[in-house]
Amino acid sequence: MGFSLLSKPKSPCIILFLFLLSCTCFTSTGAYDPLDPNGNITIKWDIITWTPDGYVAVVTMNNFQQYRHIAAPGWSLGWTWAKKEVIWAMVGSQTTEQGDCSKFKGNVPHCCKKDPTVVDLLPGTPYNQQIANCCKGGVLSSYAQDPTNAVASFQVSVGRAGTTNKTVKVPKNFTLKAPGPGYTCGPAKIVRPTQFIQPDKRRTTQALMTWNVTCTYSQFLAQKTPTCCVSLSSFYNETIVPCPTCACGCQTNASQSGSCVNPNTPHLASVVSGNGKNSLSPLVQCTRHMCPIRIHWHVKVNYKEYWRVKVTITNFNYRMNYSDWNLVVQHPNFENITQLFSFNYKSLNPYGSINDTAMLWGVKFYNDFLNHAGPSGNVQSELLFRKDKSTFTFDKGWAFPRRIYFNGDNCVMPPPDAYPWLPNAGSRQEVSLFALSITSLVVFVFYAYA
Fold this sequence. Notes:
The chain is of the alpha+beta class. The chain has helices at residues 2-27, 219-222, 254-257, 268-273, 427-449; strands at residues 41-51, 54-63, 76-80, 86-91, 93-95, 117-120, 151-159, 172-177, 183-185, 189-191, 195-197, 204-206, 209-217, 228-234, 237-241, 260-261, 284-285, 293-302, 306-315, 322-323, 326-330, 337-341, 343-347, 357-362, 369-370, 378-386, 403-406, 409-410. Strand 14 (228-234) and strand 15 form a beta hairpin.
């Protein structure tokens, strides 16, 4: 009897504890992207030759993310040396600081810092300072968009590091900024040495030692608020569903959403350029949603065998031009897409045989560059879909996307009950009355038996 009396009050506490524990478990999966489950940036460190006090290595950075790229001002890579290593020289990149090299007489190292930070060289670097896949200003394309430009490399000569596989120590605490936060890098792992096929393809050589570092992206770590939102409209309903209010912040909360500018402000150019703030912090046009990017999906025309959609991307950020932008859209009718106008298209198929996710991006030298906020700060295209009579419908918001990403960030969608409905669809009122009746009945029964 005593045990049962004590055990009853504990059960709600246990349930609450398990609930809180499950919530903390969910937060750890913030870096997992269901539309790109294997996406990551892999850093490979290949020791090519030994030197009198260390080694020469080629460091290669591969962007295996399908639709997330690194834009200007580019990536920066950091780590912490395991011993007292120094960098004697670099080709294809440079460290941001030299550090204290006062102990060295005569030949001074390129960098003596315990935790160096490396950045890419700019295009136009002299050829004697370049290696393959370097000198792009730190810009990396996404793998699906341009795999040939989704790789970066540099060469580093390391001293005071050991001259055998047993004496060399792997660096620690790798960090990757692109150019801001968002990436988390795991520990370096020694792997099978990389093999290199010679240009004549008749001989293969291999690295003396290789280790890999894997870095994954989390939108929650990159910024506190979302970066884009979605608005909807259709030909069959006059209602235009705007982006949710305060989707990316509120005008009254400057600490959360940053500053905004009214487009009718006198001397707008001086307001935008004269604040002296970091160009990475957004300065957006004052709107209800306060998002730097808005994607508008408009169901435009209904044909007998086809239907057409117009997609418009608008930039509200006065400090940012988006080059090589991309859009990822999830919609069940992408399996029947027929034609795109002025956008490139690629199916991603994150769920195997289910073709409902498409990657869209601009045509090179035409609309792949999205200007900052203003009259020219938008790009648009139209998509033509063939109807599958077994699944096609305009009812209950089927014609609108399930999810939209811009440059790899998940955009805020309007609530499903706000989607434009067909004019003859009176189910909203019917459902509301039915729900009200059921609720009233439940309340009545509850109080009757209370």
